[in-house]
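Thread: Rhodanese domain-containing protein, structure

OP (GT): Posting the sequence first so everyone is looking at the same thing. Length is 279 residues per the record. Can we get the structure tokens written out before standup tomorrow? I want them in the notebook alongside the other entries.
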Amino acid sequence: MSDCLIDADALARALNAHASIVLVDCRFDLAHPNAGRQAYLAGHLPGAVYAHLDEALSGHLGPDTGRHPLPTPEAFGARCGEWGICPGVRVVAYDDAGGVYAARLWWLLRWLGHADVCVLDGGVQAWLAAGHALETQSSVPTPRSFTGTPRVDLSLGVEALQTALADRRCCLIDVRAAARYRGEVEPIDPVAGHVPGAVNHPFTHLLDERGHFLPAAALREQIESLLSGAPAETVVAMCGSGVTACHLLLAMTHAGLPGGRLYPGSWSEWIRDPTRPIA
């Protein structure tokens, strides 16, 4: 495991040693927004709090935003404080979808300068497979003070992205399913297709059959093949709404290729302006 991933047994040992850890359950289902909270109430890792993607890990929708705009630093910082997160506390995020939603929390915390955060590799399934138990009692953490300043080097807005694409200064990687990228299907957004110049690498390619991340060396080989010699710092990750794209950035960090940036608005923001090109 790397600093950004933790396995189930290592997490269990840390919890048994009473380490200063905040567990955050990030389970979610785009088609059924209440499913994650219901799953949390039915059983979650001991002491975990629940983070709803729409309510806690996203901001308010606007006429020009994507489906999951970034929360304001103030709103997200207040939420983190409610969960008991503060300097010196390690955060472990998990879900049941290969880390897709947990990676959003991982990225947001790093965006606000809280680097001590990792994702449970394999999620709830790995925890149960290792013989560890869930609990149903909702956690009531002690509120803490959390403040953070956004790191401008971790994201790229739509206008800056358009400039970088025109100047060929970035490698835009779209992690949606191949059929959505090609525009053959579009189950969520009103317009199908992809951003011209983007390359496709579905996030599922980063995982093994159990929903664990591939070994760092295998991930590095995949990502470097997309870069064609360009540095990792040129990567801009996108998806449908800026959530799954964080999964690629987590995989890059695990692979020893940090420096990639997130296009938070992603496809659902790009298509808001009909003058933007579509391929």
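GT: Both are above now. Quick notes for whoever picks this up: The chain has a mean pLDDT of 96. The chain is about 35% helix and 10% strand.
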